[in-house]
Design brief:
CATH topology of the largest domain: Cytidine Deaminase, domain 2
Helix content: 40-55%
Strand order of the largest sheet: 2-1-3-4-5
Strand content: 15-25%
Number of helices: 8
CATH class of the largest domain: Alpha Beta
CATH architecture of the largest domain: 3-Layer(aba) Sandwich
Order of helices and strands: HHHHHHEEHEHEE
Number of strands: 5
Number of domains: 2
Structural class: alpha+beta
Distance between the termini: 53 Å
Length: 209
């Protein structure tokens, strides 16, 4: 689809030209550009010398304008990175399995999600022996609020390879659920990853409070 240089595009070009130093009124210069180059495609294909023929354009402004087009083109051509959607403990397990299952220390990770359960960010919050005094909801929810997350899934590994929940795992899960009720950001699950399997604390009934 060809983008015509309408008023909104002219205004955006004028703002770019304002940064370019001396010259005529940037809005007038943008209007003259649109008279000669009625579409963005035509304007982007002009050379610096072509643009300098327009009253009010300088070499610096022309180079700056074409650089902005080049950046925009790179953005359009850049391959889109697919955002993972985490709808189940299996999804969380598959996302982190290869990374966590062979580590020799416990890593506590939160997968922060938006309202569509798409991954906003993953944060490693704690490394080492996991217990309820180390994993504090304050740190978990501080990140959630900073990211404007709608919900999250907590994940950690058991270096022993056995994903059976410990008493500390149960306490951490219960505290995250309680804090989530207060803050209004739900902890959807707490997934424990072993060597070749996982345990969902939600499915085990530890997060129904």
């Amino acid at each position: 689809m060809t983008m015509v240089l309408d008023r909104s595009v002219e205004s955006a070009i004028a703002r770019l030209l304002q940064i370019g130093g001396r010259g005529g009124d940037p809005h007038e210069t943008a209007r003259r550009l649109s008279d000669v180059y009625p579409t963005l495609r035509a304007l982007s294909q002009a050379s610096v010398s072509d643009l300098c023929q327009i009253e009010g354009m300088t070499k610096k402004k022309a180079e700056q304008l074409l650089a902005a087009f080049a950046i925009g083109l790179r953005y359009v051509e850049e391959p889109k990175v697919e955002t993972p959607t985490i709808r189940s403990p299996q999804d969380a397990y598959e996302l982190l399995r290869d990374e966590l299952r062979l580590l020799n220390q416990e890593h506590f990770i939160c997968l922060y999600l938006n309202t569509k359960n798409q991954l906003i960010a993953r944060k490693t919050l704690f490394v080492g022996g996991l217990n309820s005094s180390i994993v504090h909801p304050r740190d978990v929810f501080r990140e959630a609020l900073k990211l404007s997350a709608a919900c999250f899934i907590a994940v950690h590994n058991h270096p022993s390879g056995d994903a059976t929940p410990s008493r500390e795992d149960i306490e951490v899960s219960e505290r995250l659920v309680e804090a989530g009720h207060i803050v209004g950001i739900a902890c959807l699950d707490h997934v424990i990853i072993g060597e070749d399997h996982y345990v969902s604390m939600k499915q085990r009934g530890y997060m129904n409070g």
